[in-house]
Structure formats: C-alpha cells, structure tokens
Amino acid sequence: MSEQPTLKHWMMACRPKTLTAAVAPVMIGTAMAFGDGLWHWPSALVCLFTALCVQIGTNLANDYFDFKKGADTEDRIGPTRVTQAGLIKPETVKTGFMLMFGLTMAGFLILVLRGGWPIAVLGVVSILSGLFYTAGSKPLGYLGLGDIFVLIFFGPVAVAGTYFVQALELNYAIILAGIAPGLISVAILAVNNYRDIDSDQRSGKRTLAVRYGRTFAQYEYAISVLAGALLPVLIYVLIRDHIYILWCSVICFLALPGIHTVFSTTEGPRLNNTLGFTGKILLIYSIIFSIGWIL
After folding, report:
1. Where are the chain's structural domains?
2. Which end of the chain has fewer CB within 10 Å, C or N?
3. Phi/psi at 215 (5° precision)
C-alpha cells in the first residue's frame, strides 16, 4: 500500500482517457451559443470546470466502490485501478471523490446564479447519478443502466445545460446536437464493458454486455459511434442551416479501425487502446462540429 500517493497515481485514478466525455459536450454547447451570438464566457468556463469535476468524481467513486464490491480483482485486464492495486488507500480515494463532488456542487451553485432553479435540479441529479453509478445496494452500473446514464448526462443534458446558462434559452437543435456526444460516450463505455465482460459476470456486475453478450456489445459500440457521427445530417435536414456540421460524417471513416478491433479481438491491451482511441474520436467530432456550427 502506497503511503504517499504520487501525482502519477492520482492521474491514473482520474482516468484521463475518459475526460473527453466531459469536455466534448461543453465544447459543443459553448460553440452553439457562440455561433448563435449568445456566448457568455464566464459561464462556459464554470461549465467546463464543473463537468470535469463530476467526471473525475465519478471515476474515483467507481474506483473505490468497484474495489469494495469485489468487481476489481487481481484478474482485471483493464487499466490499473489504484484502490485495487494498493497505490492509494481506499479512505484516501473516498476523500478524493467527496472533494470532487464538493467542487462540482460549488460550480453548480455559481451557475444557479445565472440559470436559476433548473440548474440547481441538474446539479443535484448529476452528483447523485455520478455517486450512485457504483455506490449503494443497486448501483446504476451494476443494473445495466450505465449506458442510459452516460447517453443522457454526457449528451443532451450536458450540451443543453452548457448552452442554457449562456443563452438562457433552448431549442430542439440543441437537444439533438447533444445526442451525438452522448452516443459516442456510450461507445467508450461499451468497449470498456466488452473488455470486462468475464470479470463483471463473476462479480455480479450486470452490464448490458453481461446481460446480452459479446455480439451485442460489439454492435452497441459500432452503432453508437456511427449514429453519433451521422446525427448532424438530421440536424441540417431539420434546420437547413450550419451546413459545415456535415463534415462530422468523416468520423464514420476515422472510427473504422476501432470498430474492426472490437469485432476482431477480446484482448485487453488492444481494447484498452481502442477505449483511448474512441475518446480521441469524440474529441475530434466535437471540434469539427463546433467549428462547423460557428462557420
């Protein structure tokens, strides 16, 4: 057991490869507000801070509670989990996620001053969902509800919330735009659950991959990425504006190596690389969409 965790250990616990799921919807929501002439940069910065805090808090809570529930063992084939590996004491990791959720609450309190009670509700639900993703007797992630949680909170909720606190209004195009980063974030979770299907089954973690099998997880990954990449086509057909968002369809081709890997292997290291690769795909998508909307 490490007596003094290093910065490297904390970085491992924060899971940097997953943080694009927090950055992407904030980027998209901010770009849409900017493109609509309704940008409010202080709110945008607080949204980014808050999104990162809730993502890191969720990751730390996942590290802690998966260890406590026996889901993370020595047989794990995914990236190292600091609690299970003894790199950081469980009590220290617990303090870490409590601190991050506290900072999340502080961020939402600032945003409430501009956005009002809807932001307060969003803050409470986001924190509770992040905590009970793996905490409690019936955590979301263990019931196969993690995919829905990711789709909603890293998609429409994050994009719409970011846009709303800047523009103080919403429209259906914002909600639709939020579905795409949510879907690609689901793909990140899908490859994670596909990789861990055997260990999750042994520990009683009933992810969708465990419930419906490897083939389901493979198609969930592919469909989530491709549907997310093509969603801007639907948005353009409906609003007949911001034509440059159609460049997002290039993601369909960029994602092919990841799709091929998921359908061709069950090897942990290769799937770990695909997880990081999918995070990059999400970031690239967000950049293309953001620039396309502004232009």
Report:
1. 7-294
2. N
3. -60, -40
For residue 219, what are its two tokens? Answer: 């198609």
DSSP string covering 14-67: H-GGGTHHHHHHHHHHHHHHHHTT---HHHHHHHHHHHHHHHHHHHHHHHHHHH
Taking a C-beta distance cutoff of 8 angstroms, is the pair 114, 167 a contact? no
Residue 201 DSSP class: H
Fold of 7-294: Farnesyl Diphosphate Synthase (1.10.600)
Q: Mind listing the pLDDT tens digit for each residue in 243-283?
A: 999 999 999 999 999 999 999 998 888 999 999 999 999 99
Question: What are the angstrom distances between the C-alpha of 264 and each of 68, 134, 208?
Answer: 33, 30, 19
pTM across the whole model: 0.92
Do 30 and 162 meet the contact criterion of CB atoms below 8 Å apart? yes
Contacting residues for 184 by C-beta, under 8 A, at least 6 apart: 24, 224, 225, 228, 229, 278, 281, 282, 285
Task: Name residues of the chain where pLDDT drops below 70.
Answer: 1-3, 70-78
- Indicate the SS3 state at residue 205: coil
State residue 295's pLDDT score.
93
CA–CA separation, 216 vs 48, rounded Å?
A: 33
Q: What angle do CA 190, 63, 198 make, to 5 degrees?
A: 45
> Token pair of 77, please?
């084939």
